[in-house]
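Task: sequence design from structure.
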């Protein structure tokens, strides 16, 4: 049953159900509906959208037509569409209820003319003779972006899945509905020559990831490690690859450090996602003391 009592920012014509929340994306007034239970987006998705935007702007001129594989509620596509005002895109998602959520998020953010969500199975669509959904054509995309499942099922503890949202979590986190090789095969099928495949993944899987990229003629050209805090090992890597690219131009970017030891975004992270720095003084902070002293003298 639709309910708007918890959030006055959602127009009445867009349903918000009792099992959903609405969050402020902190980017140009964008908002996002999510299910309370099931897979919910995290910082990796936000970093991926901004990384894809910055990589595209640094290397290409025209605004892209992009396809997001495994789009869930649509956070990456919606952020990308906001960051690239002339871009258009399509999200392909397996889970039916997430297709519905993304459709409402597109309407909520008034992006109907530039974004569409399509239900599709990546494993099936990766097969060369399968029919692509929504009028998509082979080699028509400038960019394919993906926040794939990071886990390999055989390396994980067995799980018993009893509820729909548990299955949804499982599909989003582990390679049970599709693996990275199938994602690469579909990305190569969708991309134009010299089109960009941009994705996030775990650093411990890089050897096999690069082997799959090479198998599908996707040449890695850039990688950015993401560190939770200064001094940590990378928890995630952002990678860009070019379809039919040539070797010899790989760029290893400086790491992105997300948080200070106090848990706040670093200056680097704030600059990366385009947020103004917020000063949070600690008690006895000399900067705070100096500011208070200056204010007292001016009074």
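Answer:
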């Amino acid at each position: 049953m639709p309910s708007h009592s918890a959030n006055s920012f959602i127009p009445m014509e867009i349903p918000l159900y009792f099992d959903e929340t609405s969050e402020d994306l902190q980017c140009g007034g964008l908002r996002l509906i999510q299910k309370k239970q099931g897979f919910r987006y995290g910082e990796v998705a936000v970093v991926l959208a901004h990384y894809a935007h910055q990589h595209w702007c640094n290397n290409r001129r025209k605004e892209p037509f992009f396809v997001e594989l495994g789009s869930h509620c649509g956070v990456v596509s919606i952020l990308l569409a906001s960051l690239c005002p002339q871009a258009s895109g399509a999200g392909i998602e397996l889970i039916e209820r997430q297709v519905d959520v993304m459709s409402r998020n597109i309407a909520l953010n008034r992006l109907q003319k530039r974004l569409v969500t399509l239900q599709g199975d990546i494993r099936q669509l990766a097969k060369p003779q399968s029919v692509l959904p929504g009028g998509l054509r082979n080699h028509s995309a400038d960019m394919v972006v993906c926040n794939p499942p990071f886990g390999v099922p055989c390396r994980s503890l067995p799980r018993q899945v009893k509820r729909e949202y548990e299955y949804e979590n499982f599909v989003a986190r582990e390679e049970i509905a599709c693996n990275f090789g199938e994602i690469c095969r579909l990305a190569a099928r969708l991309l134009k020559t010299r089109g960009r495949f941009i994705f996030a993944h775990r650093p411990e899987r890089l050897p096999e990831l690069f082997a799959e990229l090479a198998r599908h003629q996707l040449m890695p050209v850039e990688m950015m490690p993401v560190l939770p805090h200064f001094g940590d090992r990378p928890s995630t890597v952002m990678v860009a690859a070019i379809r039919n690219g040539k070797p010899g131009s790989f760029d290893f970017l400086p790491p992105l450090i997300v948080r200070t030891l106090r848990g706040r975004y670093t200056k680097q992270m704030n600059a990366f996602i385009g947020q103004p720095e917020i000063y949070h003084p600690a008690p006895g902070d000399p900067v705070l003391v100096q500011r208070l002293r200056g204010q007292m003298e001016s009074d």
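The first strand starts at residue 20 and ends at 24.
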